[in-house]
Write a structure and sequence with these properties.
Blueprint lengths: L9 E8 L3 H12 L4 E4 L9 H5 L4 E4 L2 H12 L8 H21 L3 E4 L13 E6 L8 H11 L4 E3 L4 E6 L4 E8 L2 E13 L8 H7 L7 E2 L8 H8 L4 E2 L4 E2 L2 E4 L8 E2 L8 E5 L20 E4 L2 E4 L6 E6 H5 L25 H6 L2 E4 L2 H7 L4 H17 L20 E10 L1 E2 L2 E2 L6 E3 L5 E7 L15 H18 L7 H6 L1
Parallel strand pairs: 1-2, 1-9, 2-6, 9-24, 10-20
Antiparallel strand pairs: 3-5, 4-5, 7-8, 8-9, 11-22, 12-21, 13-14, 13-20, 15-18, 16-17, 18-20, 19-20, 23-24
Helix pairs in contact: 1-5, 1-12, 3-4, 4-12, 10-11
């Protein structure tokens, strides 16, 4: 039976929901295949680009397809069982094709080895691409993709979140959006492509899907709130890889800023991390700060998700405070949106804001952060003794990176687990079709990017962006190739 359909306010051949790398790629590809395309973006224009724009802008590019397949299987390990050989074949082939496609758009590829798991089969194929040499990030790759969209007749609507998919018995016919407080129904004559990211900024979904993290903040866009997952479930989509995330990474979250800020460890060495009970619980630094290995750690011979307590405090002295900015300075990123914060070089602005607590004694500092004074004093005293001895017998921190907290006043900043992105969402197949709970494709519904990513366990840096391009092209091609759809109800009306 066909449900009542809305009166369409407008129509396009292909509607793409979400304007990051995946959405842009799907839109470009569908347009170039002859489709009239609409890009819907939840964020205002100043914040467009999602995680893609504020990422390191690295593209994983395997230089050998056979080795890429081996490396993917090694990364997935026991979590390969729900990923078909056909899906892996298409992933490897399209990831390899990324370089030529990006060059055709105007990218000047600069490739370098960046192998996160060198011991794994096929790792020799790993390269990452940047748009020319230089530091990571900076939107250099994003500008290429943004310009490619702007050069085409692709309509873009900002501040237009997708509310629901319009579905009859067997296929998706369009999207209902919210624009200026009103619901607007837009018909997709050929298909809809979901590229609206994950659920990093949806606390309820985080608690439901990610183990051991009652609250974790996004490092990327604040607009990823699981809309594609919700809409997918509403039309009967099957989910996969929901508990796999890129993180957690120790970060700082201020109430005034929408997302968590990456940390920077300056040259000072007189600092340590403690948990709520005052205990030192880890080796400070890698991997919990840098994000290397994307939140996975190997303990007792087994790879698993890094576990971090909540809250965590970084304790340091005056020498460390003077040694450089603790948060990432972002002025050189040339960003126009307001979700990044440029940290002061000497950390004093953050002390004045109250983000960093200051006290003349360790006991007084413990009172400010509500930690048992005896426990904090004891942990600092033991850390100081290990630093003097030149051997961290507790956690193995390098002796050259430890110094006693000897110069008052003393400081504390509360840190939080944060993460770059989630990987899970509606399951897709090798044609980028969204799969229903009965195992068949949902008609005229495709997806790409971090929403329903192929990555099920370990993750190679740059691979999400690579997947955005790879499956963005697949989704765009296949969406544009669909014949124009009329529901049974509309056919009768005609």
């Amino acid at each position: 039976m066909v449900e009542a359909l809305p009166d369409w306010d407008s129509e396009y051949d292909v509607i793409v929901v979400g304007y990051g790398y995946a959405g842009a790629t799907a839109a470009i590809t569908a347009h170039d295949a002859g489709a009239k395309v609409l890009l819907l973006e939840k964020a205002p224009e100043t914040d467009k680009g999602g995680n893609s724009r504020v990422s390191a802008n690295l593209v994983f590019w395997p230089n050998d397809i056979l080795m890429a397949k081996a490396y993917f299987r090694a990364l997935a390990g026991p979590y390969t069982d729900d990923i078909s050989d056909g899906m892996i074949d298409v992933w490897a082939t399209e990831m390899h094709a990324n370089r030529a496609w990006l060059e055709n758009l105007g990218m000047t590829p600069f490739d370098l080895p960046y192998i996160e798991f060198p011991e794994m089969a096929g790792s020799e194929c790993v390269r990452v691409l940047m748009n020319g040499p230089g530091p990571m990030g900076g939107e250099r790759l994003w500008r290429i993709i943004e310009a490619a969209v702007a050069a085409r007749d692709i309509a873009v609507l900002y501040q237009s979140p997708a509310v629901s998919l319009v579905k009859d018995d067997c296929q998706i016919l369009g999207v209902v959006t919210e624009q200026h407080g009103e619901r607007v129904a837009i018909r997709a004559k050929r298909a809809v492509v979901l590229t609206c990211g994950g659920f990093e900024n949806n606390p309820a979904m985080v608690r439901n899907y990610v183990d051991g993290l009652p609250r974790i903040f996004p490092n990327g866009t604040p607009y990823n709130t699981g809309d594609g997952i919700r809409m997918g479930l509403e039309v009967g989509a099957q989910l996969w890889h929901m508990n796999n995330i890129s993180g957690p990474i120790l970060s700082f979250k201020a109430p005034e800023i929408a997302v968590a800020q990456w940390l920077n460890l300056p040259k000072g060495t007189s600092y340590l991390f403690v948990a709520r009970d005052g205990s030192r619980f880890t080796m400070e630094g890698d991997p919990c700060i840098t994000g290397d290995l994307h939140g996975k750690v190997k303990r007792h011979g087994y790879w698993g998700q890094q576990v971090l307590p909540i809250p965590i405090y970084m304790i340091f002295d005056e020498d460390f405070r003077k040694s450089g900015h603790i948060g990432r300075a972002t002025a050189d990123w040339d960003v126009s949106h307001g979700n990044l914060y440029n940290w002061s070089d000497d950390n004093l602005r953050e002390v004045e804001k109250g983000w960093i607590k200051k006290a003349d004694t360790m006991e007084a500092l413990a009172a400010l952060i509500d930690i048992p004074a005896k426990a904090l004093v004891g942990s600092v005293a033991r850390f100081d003794a290990l630093a003097v001895a030149g051997e961290d017998t507790d956690w193995g921190r390098s002796a050259g990176k430890m110094a006693p907290l000897a110069v008052p006043p003393f400081y504390a900043i509360e840190l939080t687990p944060a993460f770059v992105n989630t990987q899970g969402g509606p399951r897709r197949n090798e044609h980028a079709q969204v799969i229903s709970t009965n195992g068949t494709p949902i008609g005229r519904l495709f997806s790409a990017g971090e929403l329903g990513s192929i990555y099920s366990f370990l993750y190679q840096g740059g691979a999400n962006i690579g997947e955005c391009f790879a499956f963005g092209r697949i989704a765009g091609r296949n969406a544009a190739a669909m014949a124009s759809a009329l529901s049974a109800a509309k056919q009768l009306a005609a």
